[in-house]
């Protein structure tokens, strides 16, 4: 049968190796097809990334309650402000509550120091988080010095209220002045000045 013969003949030809002459040049249409590439298609953003970006934009306009705990002393300060506020703005609101200037504040969340220019929502600051306030050493030394000065001043004023102090002062003036009237005059000046000093406090 002719059909079977042709089919078998073509099958036998396809199994034979193809040989080209040394000067063989492939047709141009085969080159263009090989050189063409499938255009790259940009990969779509993952659902998770799109969701995170949407959450960041949404959180940026929210009003949040920020809790700040002072590391030394344990005082807790609560501040309501937009999540788009910067860390520096938070320090400004902390100043009247903690009496620590923004320059001497160091805010830490989850072991990471917060940068002044960053918005709060980038650190996921929210109602469930507590920021720790660390007072820089220079500010602490000023506070300690001020407390010592106040304590020393209070101790001096307490001494001036005791009878023993005034008796000692009268005895001292008696050694310095021969005239008893001069002693009383100077003594009364001291006495009057001490009352004004105590009243000012």
UniProtKB/TrEMBL annotation:
InterPro entries documented for this protein: Ubiquitin-like_dom (IPR000626), Ubiquitin-like_domsf (IPR029071), Ubiquitin_dom (IPR019956)
Q: Drop me one GO molecular function for this one.
A: misfolded protein binding
Enumerate the Gene Ontology biological process terms.
ERAD pathway
Which positions fall inside the Ubiquitin-like domain?
A: 64-140
Q: Which residues does UniProt call coiled coil?
A: none
What do the Gene Ontology cellular component annotations say? BAT3 complex
Stretches for region Disordered: 31-61
PROSITE patterns in the record, alphabetically?
A: UBIQUITIN_2 (PS50053)
Q: Where is the composition biased (Basic and acidic residues)?
A: 45-60
The protein's matches in Gene3D superfamilies, at most eight in alphabetical order, are given as:
Phosphatidylinositol 3-kinase Catalytic Subunit, Chain A, domain 1 (3.10.20.90)
Source domain of life:
Eukaryota
Q: What is this protein called?
A: E3 ubiquitin-protein ligase UHRF2
What organism does this protein naturally occur in?
A: Anthurium amnicola
From which lineage does this chain's organism come? Eukaryota, Viridiplantae, Streptophyta, Embryophyta, Tracheophyta
